[in-house]
Design brief:
seven-stranded mixed β-sheet, 31 strands, 30% strand, Neutral Protease, domain 2, alpha+beta, Pdz3 Domain, six-stranded mixed β-sheet
Length: 559
Amino acid sequence: MILRKSISFLLLLLVITSAVKAQDLPIIKEIHLSPDLDRSGKAVGLHVNYSVQYNIDKSHDLKLLFNSLQPYLDRSTDVVTRLSVIDTQGAVSYRAYPDTNINDLSLQVWKGNRPVKGKNIKIDYHIPVAVSIPKRRGPHIDLQATGGGLAGDFTSFLLYPEMLNSVDLSLKWYLPKGFMAVTSKGENDCQIKADLSELMFCQFIVGKMFAYPEGRRGKGFSLYALGRKSDEMNQAAVWVEKVYAHLRNRLNGKAENPFRIFIRSYEGGPLASGVAVMGGYTLYLPPSEDATSADIHSLIAHETVHAFVGSLHAQEGEDDWYSEGIADYLCMVLPLEAGLYTPAEFGKLINEEAALYYTNAIREVSEKDIPSVKWSGRNAWSIGYSRGAMYFANLEAKLKRIHSQVTVVALINQITQQAQAGEYVTKHTWEKLLATSVGQWAVEDWKAMLSGKLIVPEPDIYEGYTVKKITTGVFDLGFAKPMKVQKGEFVKGLDPNSAAAKAGLQEGDEILTSININKTYTSYSNTLSIPVLRKGKKYTITFQPRKGSFEAYEFVKKK
């Protein structure tokens, strides 16, 4: 399974701004964190304590902001509780106001019943864990209970001062016996120097965890896991470290830089997925998933690419062809060149990627329209991934055919180098690089891809494979709700002419099992079997979720 809901979450957390003197800006020098435990000793939330400091002893209009995580996730239980704000005059009563939407970021604003007074304001509160299966399952940045511990991003728990722009703070953990804590910045207590966006998407894991390798882990590769058996993780870590080393070398990473992988495993739905930051990533693995399978290996390689290759500056979704497309492409070809996939595994991956692209109902949408339609259907969001991967694969094939000294990896490394040097890289940076390093034909191909023109694979797109033209239907479950095949949900808006209805599915059927539907839209032939309950009787409805007949392509191994 090549498809996964993974997003390189390099969003800018924009804050409300106002004219304020520099000496009035709030400062946080320390944050204290400790897991809240239930009677069995399992973590059920996080206790947060810090002080907001000012340079001037006077009244301050201190507003606190909390990321609602929308539109990607819905908070339910994981909200601010037992908030205490204390200044020099005692307790200040704070309450939450309706969310403020700033550049598509939904922020909950907390205001006090009076200005705070003094140079040191004490903040103390608790965040319970999120429900394991939220109504909307976006990237895995929420606060989750896993393996008796916790994992998430700082944005899952941090209620922060409105005018906070950056931090240079000490993070201090207060841990139960046997627990350890790791963040993107280091193990246990550590120093964090970051701007606000980097701080908020700093990842963490805390609990009685698996840690690899044994001993010192301050530099290079390390892997931490909650909710998985140590034997399995020791076996999995060998492949993960190999793919990390190869991708790091090919993408100009530095061996001495820390690279931290956090694995959280719990009953959170059937779809494995990841979210990356520069220098590491968090991976969600359902308990039923084998961490050593080829499907998970491709996901791991995908996230590893993200951790070395950043995004372009663009509206969310509009640069998916680049950030997600290159991750999908390189997660197939780079492990193969290192001998980390078998030929059969590689053949499966490239055909899954092809099916993902050609069975997408919005496969010819223009890139500029993706932000408005990305979440309009079950697999609509994936179009940037698969189309981008097909674009880069075709580009590579054409470069090889003309015996160019330029490669796709070299072009990507150049963009990364420019970004690391402080350049504001956009799609126009890529256009200019194509024009100067490859030629105008490459610019025209790129523009055609952005316009939504269907990509036809080059005959020599993948060495050792021929391209076969076929016909396929686009993916269609045949009912409006639920968006996912989720246990306990009821079928609504059934299309009577759909394959599902013709196979026997009925309006109002209750779904009895959560199913990872990705296995059907990354295949031209797989069927979907949904167990349902209807008037007290159980049925299993099997059908191929397709509609219409469209041009498509698959790759056949040469004999």
